């Protein structure tokens, strides 16, 4: 589009402007160098409004009215003016969405009103019972419901003071959450400020999520970089919000829908009206909300939404039903965990029927033989399903699953597809039971089934399928943390004979020139991989022990064994009795450890890894890291932590001299309670054990 210029006369005080953007321009088209601060302030405000309006139209309405170039030019001009007049830069400026420096710790925010979880219903009878309770609580008074989609995301709170976004926080434990204001500012559909004569001081709550197609793209990029893919959009969104460097957050396409408004300025009346107010204030409100009269209309709404669920660009797992009147909500009241005036109607797990074309056998890294149903492809829960796990051969016998059967397939949320049942009336004549194998499908070794176990194992530690599985296990983040050796790249390297076992990883540096010449690779990516391999040599003994992939040895068990035996030589020469005498180590684990070290090939493997520079003994300086608050204290973890995985939290506790237990007892010193903490929290309260939040735990680490 051709831009018209207004002619101006510097001497008369008039300044050239661009009609389309309102930018101050000199006669040669460059920003005027000698603007007054007053004129600059006016221009900054004008640019902020134009950018805010463009963000609203693009990210909320999906109706952009300017192109990217024009938007970028406005942003560039705003940055230039704020740089020249730093006193005019405000927190609600679009230039402040991405902060410059990473933070070390998220401070705690106490919610003005608790962020309670919703009680769940799974069928219409549950909804009817909820309606009966509402009717009883309101004493026969007439009432209406508002229904909204239940997003599979992360709940957050946004506090506005004097019309400007002051803080943004996670739900946390419902009472306190983490201050993630800097990361939330990056979501461009969240207004940094609002213009309203009425609404200036208020709280907005919403759900942060990642769209399905964006999640798929993120995983594609992860695969290209050789990184581990993410499990589901919700976990990805949660992890992104807790990144400490907002410059990394900006690389992830976060979105938000808001669903709640509380005002400090005026008395609000109805939830439905509040959603309309939020729309007027230019917040992103999902379009599917609806006011309904009676529980039967609610049921019809739920059924209709469930029908279109798979067509939506984001994940939902149900419908939220709320009393519309805020006064009636207060009358209905609350329990200690959830409001009595609202309920979540959860959708049933998604099912489809399809044919089992054949049953194949997978060999895991520890030799486990897993039967898998190869299906006639069927679209289910937003993706095409062609395989489903059959778990083990006892499961096949119990459900009488055979090749050629018509099966009911189920996928709930992010759960791996599974066979629910067989429609035996449609079974073909002459079908036969699937035989339990005696030989490994990959290396032809004899299979074994340990007494009391449902699984069957290939006992050849160097079975090619196990080798690939162990390499992937060895390089994962919780083990040696070698970035750049994902599944696809590992498969290529194995095909090229670059990797025959995990020891070959440390010889890849000798093939640098060959690796650089491979398709889709280059000098930078290969050097990054080789550097990551070199850095892995600094991993402590417990990580190396876990990375070896000994059957039944998880990361926690590896820590216990490393601490108890101090080096690989003492562990490798220990008897089964000596190993099982270690606290929390049972006879099954002890037998597996002894069996591994008796194998001559295992000894050769360890010798090669030691020559490569890996650590096979406990670092003597470890004890110096103990902290007073952790030393000899027993911790129990319950609920979902937002900043740490269970593994990471346990590592920190043990690093500083504490112990981690799986159950609460009188000997427990601390219970770390995350979101949706369960019975362990209740038991801790009954025993009077100190309960700490994730943020309090993090403060102990300082």
Helix and strand layout, with pairings?
Blueprint: E1 16-17, E2 24-25, H1 37-60, H2 68-84, E3 108-110, E4 120-121, H3 124-137, E5 145-151, E6 154-161, E7 164-170, E8 176-178, H4 181-184, E9 202-209, H5 212-224, H6 233-241, H7 246-249, E10 255-263, H8 271-280, E11 290-292, H9 295-308, E12 316-323, H10 326-332, E13 342-346, E14 350-363, E15 368-380, E16 383-389, H11 393-399, E17 406-411, E18 418-422, E19 447-448, E20 456-458, H12 464-475, H13 487-495, H14 512-516, H15 523-535, H16 541-547, H17 555-565, H18 568-573, H19 576-580, H20 587-598, H21 600-611, E21 634-638, H22 646-655, E22 659-661, E23 670-673, H23 679-687, E24 690-692, H24 694-701
Parallel strand pairs: 4-13, 21-22, 21-23, 23-24
Antiparallel strand pairs: 1-2, 3-8, 5-11, 5-12, 6-7, 6-9, 9-10, 12-13, 14-15, 14-17, 15-16, 15-20, 17-18, 19-20
Helix pairs in contact: 1-2, 16-17
Would you mind describing this structure in some detail?
This protein has 702 residues and is of the alpha+beta class. It folds into five domains: 16-96, Helix Hairpins (Orthogonal Bundle), CATH 1.10.287; 120-346, DNA ligase/mRNA capping enzyme (D-amino Acid Aminotransferase, Chain A, domain 1); 350-448, Nucleic acid-binding proteins (OB fold (Dihydrolipoamide Acetyltransferase, E2P), Beta Barrel), CATH 2.40.50.140; 464-611, DNA polymerase, domain 1, CATH 1.10.150; 622-701, 3-Layer(aba) Sandwich (Rossmann fold). It is 34% helix and 19% strand. The protein has 24 helices and 24 strands. The strands form six sheets. Strands 14, 15, 16, 17, 18, 19 and 20 form a seven-stranded antiparallel beta sheet that branches. The protein has a five-stranded mixed beta sheet with strand order 4-13-12-5-11.
């Amino acid at each position: 589009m051709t831009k018209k210029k207004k002619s101006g006369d510097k001497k008369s005080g008039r300044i050239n402007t661009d009609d389309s953007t309102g930018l101050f321009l000199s006669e040669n088209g460059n920003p005027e160098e000698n603007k007054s601060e007053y004129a600059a302030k006016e221009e900054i405000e004008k640019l902020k409004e134009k950018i805010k309006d463009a963000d609203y139209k693009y990210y909320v309405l999906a109706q952009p009215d300017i192109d990217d170039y024009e938007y970028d030019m406005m942003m560039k001009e705003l940055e230039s003016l704020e740089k020249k007049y730093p006193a005019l830069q405000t927190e609600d400026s679009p230039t402040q969405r991405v902060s410059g420096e990473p933070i070390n710790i998220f401070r705690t925010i106490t919610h003005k009103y608790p962020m309670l979880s919703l009680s769940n219903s799974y069928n219409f009878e549950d909804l009817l019972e909820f309606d009966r309770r509402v009717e009883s609580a309101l004493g026969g008074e007439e009432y209406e419901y508002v229904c909204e989609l239940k997003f599979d995301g992360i709940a957050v709170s946004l506090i506005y003071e004097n019309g400007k976004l002051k803080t943004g926080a996670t739900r946390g434990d419902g009472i306190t959450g983490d201050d993630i204001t800097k990361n939330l500012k990056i979501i461009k559909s969240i207004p940094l400020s609002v213009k309203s004569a009425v609404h200036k001081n208020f709280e907005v709550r919403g759900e942060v999520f990642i769209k399905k197609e964006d999640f798929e793209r993120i995983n594609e990029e992860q695969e290209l970089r050789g990184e581990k893919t993410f499990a589901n959009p919700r976990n990805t969104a949660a992890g992104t919000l807790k990144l400490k460097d907002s410059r990394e957050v900006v690389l992830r396409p976060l979105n938000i829908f808001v669903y709640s408004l509380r005002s400090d300025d005026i008395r609000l009346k109805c939830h439905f009206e509040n959603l309309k107010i939020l729309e007027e204030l230019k917040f992103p409100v999902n379009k599917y909300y609806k006011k309904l009269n009676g529980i039967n209309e609610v049921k019809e709404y739920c059924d209709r939404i469930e029908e279109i669920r798979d067509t939506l660009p984001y994940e939902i797992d149900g419908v939220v039903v709320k009393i519309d009147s805020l006064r009636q909500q207060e009358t209905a009241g609350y329990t200690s965990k959830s409001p009595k005036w609202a309920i979540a109607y959860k959708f049933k797990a998604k099912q489809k029927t399809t044919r089992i074309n054949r049953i194949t056998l997978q060999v895991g890294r520890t030799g486990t033989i897993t039967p898998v149903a190869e299906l006639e492809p069927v679209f289910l829960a937003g993706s095409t399903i062609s395989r489903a796990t059959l778990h083990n051969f006892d499961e096949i016998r119990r459900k009488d699953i055979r090749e050629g059967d018509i099966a009911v397939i189920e996928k709930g949320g992010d759960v791996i597809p599974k066979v629910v049942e067989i429609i035996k009336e449609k079974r073909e004549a002459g079908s036969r039971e699937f035989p339990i194998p005696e030989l490994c499908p990959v290396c032809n070794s004899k299979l074994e089934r340990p007494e009391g176990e449902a699984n069957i194992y290939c006992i050849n530690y160097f079975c090619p399928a196990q080798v690939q599985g162990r390499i992937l296990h060895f390089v994962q983040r919780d083990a040696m943390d070698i970035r750049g050796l994902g599944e696809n790249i590992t498969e290529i390297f194995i095909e090229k004979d670059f990797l025959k076992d995990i020891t070959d990883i440390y010889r890849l540096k000798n093939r640098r020139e060959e690796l650089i010449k491979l398709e889709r690779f280059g000098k930078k990516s290969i050097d990054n991989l080789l550097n990551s391999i070199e850095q892995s040599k600094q991993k402590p003994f417990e990580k190396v022990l876990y990375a070896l992939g000994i059957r039944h040895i998880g990361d926690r068990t590896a820590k216990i064994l490393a601490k108890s035996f101090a080096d690989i030589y003492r562990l490798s020469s220990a008897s089964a009795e000596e190993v099982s005498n270690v606290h929390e180590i049972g006879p099954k684990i002890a037998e597996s450890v002894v069996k591994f070290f008796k194998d001559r090939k295992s000894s050769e493997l360890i010798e090669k890894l030691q020559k490569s520079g890996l650590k096979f003994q406990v670092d003597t300086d470890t004890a110096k890291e103990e902290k007073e608050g952790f030393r000899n204290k027993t911790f129990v973890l319950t609920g979902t932590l937002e900043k740490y995985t269970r593994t990471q939290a346990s590592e920190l506790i043990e690093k500083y001299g504490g112990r981690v237990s799986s159950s609460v007892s009188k000997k427990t010193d601390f219970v770390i309670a995350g979101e949706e903490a369960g019975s362990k929290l209740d038991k801790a309260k009954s025993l009077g054990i100190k309960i700490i939040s994730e943020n309090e735990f993090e403060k102990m680490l300082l």
